[in-house]
Amino acid sequence: MQIRRDDLTGAPIAALLREHLAEMAAHSPPESTHALDLDGLRGDDVTLWTAWQGEALLGCGALKELDAGHGEIKSMRTAPDHRRRGVAARLLEHLIAEARRRGYARLSLETGSMAHFEPARALYERFGFRYCAPFGSYAEDPNSVFMTLDLGAADGAAEGARVANGTDAVVRVQGLSKVYESGLTALEDVSLDIRRGEIFALLGPNGAGKTTLISIICGLVNASGGSVTVDGFDVVRDYRETRSRIGLVPQELTNEAFETVWATVSFSRGLFGKAPDPAHIERVLRQLALWDKRDDQLITLSGGMKRRVLIAKALSHEPSILFLDEPTAGVDVALRRGLWALVRELRDSGVTVILTTHYIEEAEQMADRIGVIDHGRLILVEETGALMKSLGRKRLILQLAEPLTAVPEGLGSHELSLEGEGYQLVYSYDAQRAHTGIDTLFADVEAAGVRFTDVVTQQSSLEDIFVDLVEQRT
Predict the structure, then answer these.
(1) Which residues of 266-276 are buried (b: 16+ CB within 10 A; e: fewer)?
(2) Angle at which helices 261-271 and 278-287 pack, to 10 degrees?
(3) 472: Cβ–Cβ under 8 A, 6 or more apart, which residues?
(4) pLDDT tens sequence across 29-76
(5) What are phi and psi of 133, to 5 degrees?
(6) Among 3.90.1150.10, 3.30.70.360, 3.30.70.1130, 3.40.50.300, what is the CATH number of 169-388?
(7) Angle at 470 between CA 220 and CA 218, to 5 degrees
(8) What pTM does this model have?
(9) Range with the largest mean pLDDT of 86-90, 127-131, 397-401
């Protein structure tokens, strides 16, 4: 699905809105005085967002200024052959973002008074809208129901409300557990919110529960307890909705050996009930440098190319969430760099990316946030930069004039080690401490008669932090 800014000049949009007007008229009481005016949506203050699947118009939503600091949603319409909630939710995200960009303090709408529009009201409530008194020219209309969303005064309260109502948490895991029949506990009371549009890295040793967690979110494994929602839909009860939003790249190279690249990617799209879209398949294959291989059988491809095909399959149905389970395992350096460039492009286009990887330096460079899981328990979730700052240690390296065979006795009170064939005296310390001990170290080094020619400091890597966290629990 592609969301884009548009106008009312296109025939498909005008036709969709006219159909919407007719439907509203059919369900509105005769005394209702307010109807959607197409001419009123052509002003300079109107922004129209449309949702498209190839050349098919799925829906549209219009935002108009009601008065200073107050915006109004004038239309939210989806085509009859598409589920209202899935398309409308994506449109509503853009309308709210546009209202924030304009600096509105409130965003309101008139939802209609009849039960026919009840599903729409439920959608607005999920995004934090609440019932309110009639506003503007609607004030005297007794036949409609009104809702409003407080966008806040840039004090963070509105942002917190949005998170609480699930508009930022595209994936919400609450109290999740998984116990196999053998008695093995794979997950224990895991709770996690993954934000819309972020790259989230899930790290952990082998057998920690990473793949089990991903498999439950993707609907491949049943949980023993707890719940998971994707875009507000339960992964068990609303499995069709959740799976249509998720693309999964598994660890294993699972492809049909004698199918062509084009056929296997196109077939994968069809499995999600998507209409054929050769233009989209071509874009994906070109993006992954597979276009020249489109007619090749998978059995003839290298391991790296087969992994690209897995990613193409995962992107074939245009998911909003992409899970990458060890995506660069067994691929060469050039392909690895290409894959991470693609991940950044996907994130920039609005796709949420959740990945597991053994290449911890990649997570350090790529991820917006990092979660660490060990023995089935989520032991840490933190912004990457904040994690490096709060848990990282620093190393002070003294380059010695003469090599040492052992740390001098007079320096035994410091956390020192010898490296570089005895030419480097290394001091490890917590940079967050009020007293790092560096001044005392230099005084003791001088007293011990140790001469050095250079001093270098290094920040510990994410790999160091990860190893420390896991070792603390063993």
Answers:
(1) bebbeebebee
(2) 120
(3) none
(4) 444 434 445 555 556 678 888 887 767 777 788 888 888 888 888 777
(5) -70, 155
(6) 3.40.50.300
(7) 10
(8) 0.55
(9) 397-401
